[in-house]
Specification:
Order of helices and strands: EHHHEEEEHHHHHEEEHHEHEHEHHEH
Number of helices: 15
Shape: globular
Distance between the termini: 71 Å
Largest sheet: 7 strands, mixed
Number of strands: 12
Structural class: alpha+beta
Strand content: 5-15%
């Protein structure tokens, strides 16, 4: 059995009854037929080139030659997908690639014990996350409790400290952002613990997770029992908590380092190609540089990354939504925007006072296209008749607007499924509006406020959603009414999808970006920190 690195399948997958019939025959002791035993390296390279692993796969796929078949093995978190390609032989004993077909198999390589182990990891991580959430919530609670004290509503302090009130208010955004970022890291840590350290997959990481979550706590508990300790469970829990805390800190630092390194690598890759020194993309070019020269180069990359971040954050953007029907032959059939959104901030940034006099912004003569994460990653979910789910659609939120809906072909959605999708999205909006309206009535908000909220919900949420569903239904019926294509022809399968096109119309100037950074550091960090140190 030969093994080599392979990749994700991009060829059509067809059912093969002959392969299934042969798979039920007795094995041939793992021997390859004569026609497969003399495969040359050129054929193997061509086979590997046809399958390429996408970067979204955590584990690269493998290609295995076994019993006259070519197996492409795709491992996911919970299961294993096997693409079994049978290459039959002709009368002369050679390979007949024209008759090659692929059969898809799915299996679960894990056992119940393995799953229980991962569930145990996740439960311990969730318990740790709960304790950390309580600590963060208490810090924020003390921060808000300090406001009435500084305002003089306390028996111990009757005077009003305006400086302390302003400092406390300025520290709230930074504390909330920091605590929310910490909770995001905790959530990712729980998911990674459930997957057994899949983010940094290596043998060392697996051993570390097993030692922290299982081996050391169980050893501590066993030793404490043999020593006759009165509170063995308390000692074991303390050791367990300390180990998980240390592991979380190391994991968080590793994630932060990976994100910073990836950011610097990407900036250097796209904006420093003309430089002689490329420390990250080509480490050998900086082998003879001194420490100061390397730091100077990294500072340039950091400045460029900071400018790119500030430009993206404070630029004025316009968004256009397209509903497109497409097929493999005709391409894009309809590119008229059905909705345009121009933010108020984009209009403000185009005022002559900010562009000509203050030089805060510059208006772009040609709008610059801005690509979102899903567009860069090229990951679009497909909705077919078989994988359509009403409950998944209910919980999808705005992501359903970016899904590709198959409207013609064997996997097409039915008209009832399209209509039910529209009713589900409309019902979810009505339910949320009704819940908000009931909360206002229960809290005594008044009839006027309730009517205003109801009117805004109808004109801002419900009515645009009805129009969107109506246009989607009309487009689907238009594709279905095309009699030139058959539903049985897979090559003529039409799809419907929505595209959000984002363009940048204004950009902040360089000095305005640095000005905003200075304001944020001084007023949101230095001022509250110095005030806290002065007030002890």
């Amino acid at each position: 059995m030969d093994e080599e690195d392979g990749t994700a399948c991009t060829t059509p997958l067809l059912e093969d009854p002959e392969v299934e019939a042969e798979s039920q025959q007795p094995p041939r002791m793992g021997l390859l037929p004569p026609s497969m035993s003399n495969l040359d390296s050129i054929t193997r390279k061509e086979e590997a080139a046809a399958f390429q692993s996408h970067f979204t796969l955590r584990i690269p796929t493998s290609t295995v030659h076994f019993r006259g078949n070519i197996l492409r093995i795709i491992d996911t978190e919970q299961e294993q997908i096997i693409l079994q390609q049978k290459i039959p032989t002709d009368d002369d004993g050679g390979m007949d690639s024209k008759k090659a077909k692929v059969v898809v198999k799915r299996l679960s390589p894990g056992t119940y014990g393995y799953r229980m182990l991962r569930v145990g990891y996740a439960l311990i991580a969730i318990l740790f996350m709960g304790f950390l959430f309580v600590v963060c919530f208490q810090i924020l609670l003390f921060l808000f409790a300090a406001l009435p004290v500084e305002a003089g509503y306390s028996s111990s302090q009757s005077s009003v400290s305006g400086l302390a009130i302003v400092s406390t208010l300025l520290s709230i955004p930074l504390m909330i952002y920091g605590m929310s970022s910490l909770m995001s890291l905790c959530s990712a840590f729980v998911v990674d613990a459930f997957h057994g350290g899949a983010l940094f997959r290596s043998t060392i990481v697996e051993v570390m997770y097993m030692m922290v979550f299982l081996v050391i706590p169980m050893t501590t508990f066993a030793v404490a029992l043999m020593a006759g300790h009165a509170e063995s469970w308390r000692l074991t829990s303390g050791v367990w908590g300390i180990l998980v805390l240390i592991l979380f800190c190391v994991w968080g630092l590793a994630v932060t380092y990976r994100e910073v390194y990836s950011c610097f690598w990407l900036v250097e890759k796209h904006y420093f190609q003309g430089c002689d020194v490329q420390l990250l993309t080509s480490p050998s070019s900086g082998a003879n540089l001194s420490w100061r020269e390397k730091m100077r180069h990294l500072v340039k990359i950091a400045k460029k990354a900071l400018l790119l971040t500030q430009t993206s954050r404070y630029a004025g953007i316009w968004r256009e939504r397209y509903q497109v029907t497409a097929s493999s032959d005709a391409g894009l059939l309809n590119m008229d925007p059905v909705e345009q959104r121009k933010s108020i901030y984009s209009w403000i940034s185009r005022i002559s006072v900010f562009t000509d006099k203050l030089k805060f912004f510059k208006v772009l003569e040609v709008p610059k296209r801005v690509y979102g994460p899903s567009e860069v990653r090229d990951i679009i979910p497909f909705v077919t008749r078989d994988n359509w789910s009403m409950q998944r659609l209910w919980c999808a939120g705005d992501t359903r607007l970016h899904s590709v809906v198959v409207a013609r072909g064997p996997s097409r959605l039915t008209l009832d499924q399209i209509k039910l999708s529209s009713w589900v999205s409309l019902a979810s909006t009505l339910l949320a509006t009704l819940l908000a309206f009931g909360g206002l009535v229960w809290s005594g908000g008044g009839v006027t406020v309730s009517i205003i909220v109801a009117v805004l919900a109808v004109f801002c949420c419900i009515w645009p959603l009805i129009g969107n569903n109506r246009r989607m239904l009309d487009m689907y019926e238009g594709v279905r009414s095309d009699t030139n294509q058959s539903d049985d022809d897979e090559r003529g399968a039409n799809t419907i999808y929505q595209v959000w096109k984002t363009v940048r119309v204004t950009e902040p100037t360089e000095y305005y970006c640095y000005f905003r950074v200075a304001v944020e550091i001084i007023f949101l960090f230095l001022w509250p920190f110095v005030s806290m140190c002065v007030a002890n």
